[in-house]
Write a structure and sequence with these properties.
Shape: globular
Radius of gyration: 22 Å
Order of helices and strands: HHHHHHHHHHHHHHH
CATH topology of the largest domain: Growth Hormone, Chain: A
CATH architecture of the largest domain: Up-down Bundle
Helix content: over 70%
CATH class of the largest domain: Mainly Alpha
Largest sheet: none
Strand content: under 5%
Length: about 400
């Protein structure tokens, strides 16, 4: 046994290594790909989050009701749930690199259309950018796994952080750009510039990349009758619903409480920036104990306390409440993503629960902002909305505590 191992090690040591200049070129190519992926990921939230800070201006300018604004906020999230499951099937026709390039161009077109042609352009453009983002979100992790197999976990962390950083940037600068440029249309249309730049920097990944067929599909278990799988899915969906309600409606809530649109955008940007801390450390914190239930309870408690403070607390402490919510929100999302792996005994189950959580979860997340718009329009205040949001938070805590137990999906 020792002799065989020694011989194998000797053969491995004797295996010729690529020349130093070739290793250097490969390292440079990976570094450039890393920068490109991070930049592309930052564009996947900016176009969405930029709507929230100027939602009041959009409604006033186009004469849209609260329900119509709820549809506007819901539409891209609905696209995620409907179209994301179909993205892997397109790999039979084109490579992931080409599909991402096409999606980035579609994202640019959707942003431009959203700022033109009035209400029809607003909704059609939002639909197109939602479709484009759903494609890229599904395909980029596969690119990461293929090019960074050893550091895939670290890369996914950078990918998630880039998503959050793009969201925080959009939340903070959209209103100042509206005031500087004089129109919400120009402020939203601005995000077409970084989107088209993302398409341009992605072009080198497409050169020489032929279309290829997907590998033979791997048999995965059917999870629709598995209760633990539904617990994970419900936690993913309810936390997503909370997130998209906050992204879309928090600025208008704060404006109705007396804040300026500029200050409301800064509050959202603060929330999004603070959540970066626990989005990075959340999975590490959650895996320190016997299971994830204590971490989930703490994070959801912070979300609940922060939300109530934002809606009913003193506006002089609004940034404190935003910080409390942000700490809980970042950990909530990070742990929900980690549960897809922690509850799976093998890659096949992980793939199955990921698909189930994404399809069903985004559908749940898509409906919630629309309900918020309807409740606000028919009650004229935010009390019913606050009650609905607390039900979502309690539902997320309940499903999260069940999903956080140390067991595997069978």
């Amino acid at each position: 046994m020792l002799d065989n191992s020694s011989e194998a090690n000797s053969q491995k040591a004797a295996k010729p290594q690529p020349p130093a200049h070739e290793r250097g070129k490969k390292g440079l190519a990976q570094a450039l790909l890393l920068i490109t992926i991070v930049y592309v990921a930052m564009n996947l939230r900016a176009a969405l989050i930029s709507v929230g800070p100027v939602i009041d201006s959009i409604g006033t300018s186009l004469g849209l009701s609260a329900t119509a604004l709820g549809v506007l906020i819901t539409l891209p999230v609905l696209c995620f749930g409907v179209f994301a499951p179909f993205a892997p099937r397109l790999l039979k026709l084109q490579s992931a690199e080409r599909l991402i390039l096409f999606s980035l161009l579609l994202l640019t077109g959707g942003i431009v259309l959203r700022s033109n042609l009035g209400s029809p352009g607003l909704f059609v453009g939002t639909f197109l950018l939602g479709l484009a983002i759903s494609m890229v979100m599904v395909l980029l992790p596969g690119i990461i796994k293929r090019h960074f197999p050893v550091n895939a976990g670290l890369m996914m962390g950078l990918y998630s952080t880039a998503l959050a950083a793009g969201a925080a940037t959009a939340a903070g600068v959209t209103v100042p750009m509206e005031q500087w440029l004089g129109d919400w249309r120009l402020s939203l249309g601005f995000w077409a510039i970084p989107a088209v730049l993302a398409a341009l920097v992605w072009v080198p990944q497409v050169r020489g990349e032929p279309a290829f067929s997907a590998r033979r599909p791997v048999a995965v278990p059917r999870l629709r009758s598995n209760w633990l799988a539904w617990q994970v899915t419900l936690f993913m969906g309810t936390q997503g619903a909370i997130a998209y309600c906050i992204f879309g409606w928090l600025p208008l809530i704060l404006i109705d409480r007396g804040l300026s649109s500029l200050d409301a955008g800064f509050v959202l940007a603060t929330l999004m920036s603070i959540q970066l801390t626990t989005s990075i450390t959340g999975p590490w914190i959650a895996t320190r104990g016997r299971d994830q239930r204590p971490a989930i309870f703490v994070f959801m408690a912070l979300v609940g306390a922060g939300f109530l403070g934002l809606v009913y607390g003193s506006t002089s402490a609004v940034y404190i409440w935003a910080g409390v919510f942000g700490l809980g929100f970042g950990g909530m999302f990070a742990v929900a993503m980690a549960l897809l792996v922690l509850r799976s005994p093998n890659p096949q189950v992980a793939a199955a629960i990921s698909g189930m959580s994404q399809g069903v979860g985004y559908m749940i997340a898509a409906v919630a902002p629309l309900i918020v718009g309807i409740l606000h329009e028919y009650t004229g205040n935010w009390d019913a909305v606050a009650a609905f949001m607390m039900l979502l938070i309690l539902g997320a805590m309940w499903s999260g505590l069940l999903a956080g137990r140390a067991r595997f999906i069978e």
